[in-house]
Each structure stands twice: as C-alpha cells, then as structure tokens.
Amino acid sequence: MIHYTCDRCKRRIDPAKEIRHVVRVEVQSVLEPLPGDDLEDDRDHLLEIDDLLDAMDLEEEDFLQDDLPQQLRFDLCSDCYRRYIRDPLGLEPSLNVGFSSN
Asked: How far is residue 8's CA from residue 75's CA, in Å, rounded to a whole number?
C-alpha cells in the first residue's frame, strides 16, 4: 500500500478519507537579449561561448547547475493546500506572538 505524507506539515494523508493535492512547480532561467544585440548578426556566437567557458573557474560549475530547469512536485493535505493557494510564495508573515508569564 502506498503511503502519502504532506510535504509541508509532514502529516500522513489517507486518500480514502481526504483529498491529496499535488503541486507541480517548474523553474527555469530566462536570459533576455541585450539591447542592440539583434543588429549584430555577423558575430561568432560559438567563439563567444568558448571564451566565456574558458574564463570561468572550475568552482563555478555548481553555479551552472543552478541554472538548469527544475521540476518540483509536492503532495499537500487539504489544510496546507488552502494555505498554499492563499500565499503561494510564502510572503505573508506568520503571526507568532509570545508573552512572558509575569
């Protein structure tokens, strides 16, 4: 039997008793053309790419991996799904107020 767990609150989701929501997020880097680049059609783009790769350090290989497209998938319970729909980027500050026991 397959077990599902909410990726946000870590609570077990029983598909026989509640709806399991799947959220898919696709992230990719987009490079916008620089102004004036469309007029320079006679450039050697392969040579420019080769020069850029030669100038990069080996330590920057991890940085290049971050620019690869990523597809993320999350299982959410109904409560966490409603929270996600209200604030998908998590911009709402959480209101955690603590009082001393004076």
From this structure: 8
